[in-house]
Amino acid sequence: MFLRILISSCPAVGHLLPILPLARAAQRAGHEVALLSHPSVAHLAPSLTLLPAGPSLEENLAEVMRRSGVDARDVAIDETEANARIPVDFFVHARMDLGAAAARAAVREFAPGLVVADAADLFGPYTAAALGVPWAVHGASLPFNEQLAKFFDVAAAERVAQEGVTLTSPVAYLDPWPDALLRPSDVYPAPRIPVRAVPHRGEGAPWRRTRRGDRPTVLLTLGTLVDDPQALGGALDSLLELDVDVIVAPHVAGDLGDRQPDPDRVQVAGFVPMKDLLDSGVDVVVTAGGAGTVLSALSAGIPLVVLPMGVDKPMNAERVASVGAGRTVTAPGEIAAAVAEVLATPAHARAAAHVAESVCSSYPAEAALDRLLEIASGRTTIG
């Protein structure tokens, strides 16, 4: 039986990209798939029907800034109520205030039989409850601890109740984090389906590296949420103290300021699909610690140096370091020493390869989708 499946995501690259393999598997299986999000991310999934609703990432950030005077990107999420307040305002109150009505109208017209929502997205569970259809979580980030999850759950239930809707429980939790990086304390809101993390692959022609020398290659990317050109430039300056080649993937042009790096050592790639970057012969990835970059690198067995910058990134960095698959630093100037240590210590690459094996033990997208559809239809349960 073919379904209409709704993918609901916050309009941020790191939230949407991890769900796309599942969406494309659903399309290949003959299901009709639509994306509920802001048009600013539509280019990432041109084959999906867009249901436009809600604010852009910039509009959402501006609304939280207007209400609180705080940049939500700078807040590290932890179990304290004070630090949870800004993320709750961002993902729950501001986003619902700016887009709940449009989301409900768009989903009512599409009439999905199943909703899959990114773990931070409230439009998905809200519209699924309003229509009375099953929904599942796609958890790109590690699950919140019990106290933090409670803050979000209470706020979400109260805000959705203002729309005359009572939230329902998800039928499953699609988890791209491999067993090797999990802990017994990780708590899931629904039965877990381990889904294989894969680096984002674009729908156009692949990006190719223009040249490659004999030196080790370091990929430098701070992701798409970190807005700190000074940190990116400082990281590049630190790396160039080493005898390495560097691929820099800034999110927007101009993030390197007026630097004119030596083209024999540095290639500025811009915003390129992670699969293409990792396939270009990368030995170490330097990152701000976003889940997508961390999982992509480790799925390819590449160790990391992480400069965690806000939100869930410190938690991601800690998991990487705990299994020996990389190093964590606290400032851009520390990156060169950390990269040198990772390159000189084979144990880091071995640990990354071990995580890659764990990634491969998770369900590929097609099998995860089959499992989800069985559960959503009530034909099976997860033991």
From TrEMBL:
It comes from the Bacteria. InterPro entries: EryCIII-like_C, Glycosyltransferase_28, UDP_glucos_trans. Coiled coil: none annotated. Residues 236-367 form the Erythromycin biosynthesis protein CIII-like C-terminal domain. This is UDP:flavonoid glycosyltransferase YjiC (YdhE family).
